[in-house]
Amino acid sequence: MKRGRGSVAFVIGLVIYALLWLAALELNKNALWGWAAALALLLGYGVLYRNGLGAQRWFVKLGGFLLLTVLLALNFSLSQGPVKRRPAVEGKNQAVTEVVTVAQGQLTGVYTPDGAVEVYTGIPYAAPPVGELRWREPQDPAPWEGVLAADHFAPMSMQVLNSNLYSSLAQIIGYHDYEISLKDNFRDAVSEDALYLNIWKPAGAQEKLPVLVYVHGGSLQTGQPWYADYSGEGLARKGVLVVNFGYRLGVFGFLADEELIAESPNGTTGNYGLLDQIKALEWVRDNIAAFGGDPENVTLAGESAGSACVSALCTSPLAKGLFRRAIGESSTVTAPRPAHSYRLLEEALATGKATKERFGAATIAELRAVPAEKLAAAMDVNHHMTIDGYALEKSPYEALRAGENNAEAILHGFNAQEAAAFTLFSNANLKNYEEKVRRYFGDEADAVLALYPVSSDAQAKASWNEIYSAIFFTHGHYCWTRQAAALGIPSYEYAFTKTNGRLGNWHSGEEVYCYGNIPADSKLYDAADRELSEIFCSYFANFAKTGDPNGEGLPRWEISTDGATVQELGERIGPTADKSLALYDILNRMQGFEE
Question: Considering the entire predicted model, what is its pTM?
Answer without folding.
Answer: 0.95
